[in-house]
Amino acid sequence: MQYTKEDIQQLDKVTCLKIINSVTGIKPANLLGTIDNKGRTNLAIFSSIIHLGSNPALLGFIVRPAGEVPRHTYENIKENGVYTINHIHPKFTENAHYTSAKFDDSISEFERCSFTEEFITDFKAPFVKESTFKMGMNFKDAIPIPLNGTIMVIGEIEHLVYPDDAMVADDIDLEVSNSVGISGLNSYYALKKIGKYPYARVNETPDF
Ligand SMILES: Cc1cc2nc3c(=O)[nH]c(=O)nc-3n(C[C@H](O)[C@H](O)[C@H](O)COP(=O)(O)O)c2cc1C
Fold this sequence. Notes:
7-stranded antiparallel sheet
């Protein structure tokens, strides 16, 4: 299969969305937990989390254009300045998937999709108890992307929790932590570690 830009523009909306959402390869599978000023919790699946830098420990994610659809996660983050990022594990991919339904803000996806709210220390945003790998985030910046009306939300890690055995030989092993990956908007993958290599130096590069 081979497409030009014009071919892509002529695809029907759903086909285009499915193909272009898959072309980056595997994306991380996370649930974002937030709370509004009335104390109502919210949980939604996001696959656009990216690493922005380690010191300070910054992560970004993309919020789709608001339009007529309310964006509860983003609104809650703006209200309270905090959110949680929780890895999705194989035993709850289906529950996690359905947090993407457009539930009314009076309905918490925690309850509707059968997740347990967990509050760690005095951090205001809810974590997902069922997730063993999770972060509490402080909102830092929101950068509009005028090209398509999306917004990049940037936060700094305030709390980090992961299973002790996920640290294997000085590295986080996402197969051990049972974290999952996403392709497109519907497909979930288990991760299998297939290699580990040292920092790549010119004079240590093998003769291939
Ligand atoms: C696999 C998957 C990945 C998603 N990733 C994103 C994302 O990165 N950004 C986004 O804005 N919406 C994403 N969504 C859609 C949101 O989950 C959906 O709009 C949800 O209703 C947002 O909830 P909220 O209004 O409570 O924030 C994704 C949906 C699915 C099924």
